[in-house]
Amino acid sequence: MTIKAETLNNKPKAIILRTAGTNCDNETKYALEKAGAFVDLIHINQVLNEKSLLGLYQILVLPGGFTYGDDIAAGKVLANQLRHHLLDELIQFVDDGKLIIGICNGFQVLVKMGLLPRINDIQYSLNGYK
C-alpha cells in the first residue's frame, strides 16, 4: 500500500505540552498517532519562548499529571503561566476552530485559566446543575 503525499498533508498536527509533573503524555501521543495525527511533545518553555509555535498545530493537548506538584492548587501554576503569557495565542487558537483537550489535570488548567466559555455561568445545586 502506497500513501499519497496529499494524504500526509491532511493529517492534523498535535502538540502535547509538557512541564514538571505532567504524565500520560506518551500514551496520549500514541493514541493520537493511532488516530492519524502527527504529534510533537514540547516543553512549555519552548512555546513560551516561541509563541508562534502554536500556529503550526491544529490540536493542543494539556495532559494529565500533577503539574508543578499541584502544591498551590490543582493546575493553578500552569493555568497562570498560560493565562499571563499565552492567553492571546490560545484565544486565537480557539477562534481559528482548532481543538484543545485537557486531560485530568489539563482540564483543571483550562478551567482555572478561564478559557472554557461560559464556565462561570453554570449554577450548581445539590441535585445537579441548572
List keywords for this structure.
Rossmann fold; 5 helices; alpha/beta; 130 residues
In short:
One of its GO terms (cellular component) is cytoplasm. By secondary structure, the chain is α/β, with parallel strands linked by helices.
Q: How does the SSE layout of this entry go?
A:
Elements: H1 5-9, E1 13-18, H2 25-34, E2 38-43, H3 44-49, E3 59-62, H4 76-95, E4 99-102, H5 105-113, E5 124-125, E6 128-129
Parallel strand pairs: 1-2, 1-3, 3-4
Antiparallel strand pairs: 5-6
Helix pairs in contact: 4-5
Question: How does this model look, in words?
Answer:
The protein is α/β, with parallel strands linked by helices and 130 residues long. It has one domain (5-129): Rossmann fold. The protein has helices at 5-9, 25-34, 44-49, 76-95, 105-113, and strands at 13-18, 38-43, 59-62, 99-102, 124-125, 128-129. It has a 4-stranded parallel sheet. β3, α4 and β4 form a beta-alpha-beta unit. α4 crosses α5. Pfam families: GATase_5. InterPro entries: Class_I_gatase-like. One of its GO terms (molecular function) is phosphoribosylformylglycinamidine synthase activity.
